[in-house]
Amino acid sequence: MANLRHMLFETTRMTGAFLIASVGTVIGVLIAVSLLDLGSLAPAADIDPALREAGIAGLFASTYIGGSVNYAALGEITGLSTDASFFSAATATDNLFSAVFLSVLALLPGLNWLAKHYTRHEHGEETAAVETAERISATSLTLALAVAITFVAVGDAVTAAIGMPSLRYAIITGLALIAATAFPQWMERLHGGFELGVGLAFVFFAAIAAGADLVAMVKIAPLLIVLVMILLSVHLVVLLAVGRLFKLTLPELVTASNAAILGATTAPALAAARGWHDLVTPGVLVGVLGYALGTFTGTAIFHLWG
Questions:
Q1: Which residues, including other chains, have CB under 8 Å from residue 246's CB and lie 6 or more apart?
Q2: Predicted model pTM
């Protein structure tokens, strides 16, 4: 159940964590492009090597701040999508290392030597305890699934009506929040919805990993592997160092990084799987913020670097 007081508090903190994660992505991109010769990766004769390099920088900055929507947009803006072989390899690299990085993020909170250096995450434990004590039945699971499908169907209808697909998850989240606030007693009957969501989240994670084409990645553009490794390493170092400076908790930083690197879908899924109930909704919201910032940031890097 969404607690508005906690949600507003955590969304403000999550926005700060997400901006730190985005800055880490930009710094990582700039360092990687400075160290590597990327001009030859997209062998299109009509594109200047320097412009190709700038396009690759903008492409990965956009996807690691926003998501696949921004990735596709930058592919068109930079002209890199016209080279099917390169774009396939870049997509495979993005998918594979996103899945690997998701695994790294999931492990971070369990590292005691790291967690002890960060502020303790105080919110969500009470909610988790209450949720565990609730009685789950076949009826409550069926109702929870039916309500969730209804929210998605209505959200998709609204998204289609206004013609803004990037707002899909924000609209669905808003509908759920409105229902939880307006009808709290009825929504509290949906016992087991959280556990059901966690189970489906693991299916979603497996689907992400299955989308990686390792053969295309290694055969066409192995240098992209180095690029992404440098980018994500710098991103993580900036995130953890600056986040600790601003006294953000490790769950907040992990969720914000997830929202930046993988988008608005996996951030709440991982938060739910780890039991950070209070970070599920903020995770969606900052992920949607990434959709708004990703294309803008990637385009700016493309034009300024080129």
A1: 16, 20
A2: 0.72
